[in-house]
Design goal:
Length: 60
């Protein structure tokens, strides 16, 4: 079983506990519902960035 890591959401600072993520992986914060992308993993842990929502114009 892989070791869990703890990091904070960059938006709301809620603690997140998850298995070690891979670069490019996305996850959602359970508190603010922000979608986050793992940009890279370095010695300090994963570096997360917010994924901008893409809204579609359905012509309505």
């Amino acid at each position: 079983m892989s070791e869990m890591i703890s990091i904070d959401c960059p938006e709301c600072e809620a603690p997140l506990t998850l298995p070690p993520p891979a670069p490019g992986e996305t996850l959602a914060c359970p508190e603010c519902l922000l979608t986050l992308r793992v940009e890279r993993v370095d010695a300090a842990g994963p570096v997360l960035t917010m994924v901008e929502p893409v809204l579609r114009d359905w012509g309505e």
